[in-house]
Amino acid sequence: MRRSGLMMVAASVLLTGCAPASPVPSPTSDPTPASADLTATTIPTGTLFAPAELGTDERQEWLDRLARVATILETTDLGALDADWDGRLTLELPADAAGYAALAGSGGQQSAAVTRCSDGASRITLNPRVGSLEAGYLDTLLLHEAVHAATGSACTDRPLWIEEGLAEWLAIQHDPTARGANQEWLDHHLATSGVPTGMPADRQFEGTAAQLSEAYALATFAVTTTIEHLGTDAAMAYFAEPDAETTGRSAAWYLAALRAQYEPEADSGG
Ligand SMILES: [Zn+2]
Predict the structure, then answer these.
(1) Has residue 202 got a pLDDT over 90?
(2) CATH number of the domain located at residue range(s) 34-155 in this protein
């Protein structure tokens, strides 16, 4: 049934959400930040900060996941977007909600993870609420956040449709389930709201889990359409430094592609 299918998607997408990190609360009189409770393990592709009591097997699983995701990014052509990335990822696994809030800030409470800018470098912080979910979900979540980290999303000021669309564009290439959910949210948005009039606005990336999921799906479609028309090199250069003229062309391609898919009768002259 359509309805139950969508509800299942809502449950899974709720936890793949990713919010721009809000400012981290300023230090209180307590000189020990929550991250000090985490133990660092460093491998060639990054550093994992996790509770000392995390089991050896689970720690190794996260290190393997970190390495896999870093390798995917190394082999993905993001052009100018990740030119400043050193190939390493920093992942924090706070033990509890308080530790997560201390690192991610209050804005990340509803998100499965946030990628934040710390002294000009990106750090990925996982919400402990999702830490025990199935491996495939965590792989995709980390890949999504790793795109933010490698492209310095949190340290720059690009439109959210580019940031979130790019992260999902790569994540769904490696996860057929996420790709299907993305398509279903796109279909749902077009069926209920019709073809939009422009690129997804930043304000669309807030609200309910369903609204957020629709914004992600639209953004992914916009990024995909832009890459198809400009080619990878030019598209990545544009994403790195968006200009108004290309945004206008990109929006025209995006809207035309949506109309062609969802309003086919409009093209056939009736
Ligand atoms: Zn994101």
Answers:
(1) yes
(2) 3.30.2010
